[in-house]
């Protein structure tokens, strides 16, 4: 869907450039416009190379602050899907996350599988997490990533949140080897993708920094999930 939207945007730009060229030619400025059109496709392609990097299961009192330091240094905005019980324990970390301009979403309160606990418990998990986030940031989250990617469609009518999954999952929680995580991410990432990581280990944080540095050198820019979905 993101690629189709991007293609339509690019097509509209080219139609606009063609019309501008025709009008400019009539007044003798075609040469200048041709020069602009030659450079413009590269600009469009650069604008399309966006990805969202996301982190689940936080905040972590040890590793999330280090991650926030590195994101600030690199000028990157990320998306964090938080556990309500961790928000309650480490509000200062969440407050900094919010103040730094990152997008905060709901994960669950205790990392339960929504399909296993039933509708009533799921709604309670979401409500408690929303309240915990609001108590710290003054804002309710607009997005949710259900643990294990397990969602019940009947909840769509009861939960005013946008479900967000992922395209790239390096399973960083299953290894302490940052290089392995980096290789998995770089192998699979394409423009428009959502990368899933966690901010609960040194290896995951280091892998995130290497991924960001490498993709930025390749011309990628990092945006929040909200910015990516609205492009």
Summarize the structure.
The chain has 231 residues and is of the alpha/beta class. Helices cover 55% and strands 13% of the residues. Strands 1, 2, 3, 6 and 7 form a five-stranded parallel beta sheet that branches. Strands 4-5 form a two-stranded parallel ribbon.
Give a description of the structure.
This protein has two domains: 2-48; 50-230, Glycoside hydrolase/deacetylase (TIM Barrel, Alpha-Beta Barrel). Strands 1, 2, 3, 6 and 7 form a five-stranded parallel β-sheet that branches. It has a two-stranded parallel sheet with strand order 4-5. The chain has 231 residues and is α/β, with parallel strands linked by helices. The protein has ten helices and seven strands. Helices cover 55% and strands 13% of the residues.
Number of domains: 2
Number of beta strands: 7
Report on the biggest sheet: 5 strands, parallel
Number of helices: 10
Low-confidence stretches: 1-46
CATH fourth-tier homologous superfamily of the largest domain: Glycoside hydrolase/deacetylase
Percent of residues in helices: 40-55%
On the 0-100 scale, what is the average pLDDT? 84
* CATH top-level class of the largest domain: Alpha Beta
What is the rounded Rg?
Answer: 21 Å
Shape: globular
| CATH architecture assignment name of the largest domain | Alpha-Beta Barrel
CATH topology of the largest domain: TIM Barrel
Strand content bin = 5-15%
Assign the structural class, choosing from mainly alpha, mainly beta, alpha/beta, alpha+beta, or little secondary structure.
alpha/beta
Name the helix and strand elements from N-terminus to C-terminus, one letter apiece: HHEHEHHEHHEEHEHEH
Cα distance spanning the termini:
11 Å
InterPro entries: Glyco_hydro/deAcase_b/a-brl (IPR011330), NODB_dom (IPR002509), Polysacc_deacetylase_ArnD (IPR050248)
Protein name: Polysaccharide deacetylase
Keywords: Hydrolase, Metal-binding
EC number: 3.-.-.-
């Amino acid at each position: 869907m993101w690629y189709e939207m991007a293609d339509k945007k690019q097509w509209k730009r080219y139609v606009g450039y063609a019309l501008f060229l025709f009008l400019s030619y009539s007044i003798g400025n075609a040469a200048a416009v041709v020069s602009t059109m030659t450079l413009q496709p590269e600009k469009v392609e650069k604008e399309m190379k966006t990805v969202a990097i996301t982190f689940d299961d936080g905040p972590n009192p040890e590793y999330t602050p280090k991650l926030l330091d590195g994101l600030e240094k690199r000028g990157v905005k990320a998306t964090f899907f938080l556990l309500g019980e961790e928000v309650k324990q480490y509000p200062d970390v969440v407050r900094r996350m919010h103040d730094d301009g990152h997008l905060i979403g709901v994960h669950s309160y205790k990392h339960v599988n929504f399909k296993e606990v039933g509708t009533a418990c799921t709604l309670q998990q979401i409500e408690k997490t929303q309240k915990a986030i609001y108590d710290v940031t003054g804002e309710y989250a607009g997005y949710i990533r259900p643990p294990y990617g397990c969602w019940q469609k009947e909840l769509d009518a009861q939960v005013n949140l946008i479900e967000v999954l992922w395209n790239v999952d390096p399973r960083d929680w299953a290894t302490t080897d940052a290089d392995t995580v980096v290789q998995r991410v770089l192998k699979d990432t394409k423009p428009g993708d959502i990368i899933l990581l966690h901010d609960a280990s040194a290896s995951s944080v280091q892998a995130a920094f290497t991924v960001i540095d490498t993709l930025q050198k390749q011309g990628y820019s990092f945006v929040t999930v909200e910015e990516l979905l609205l492009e």
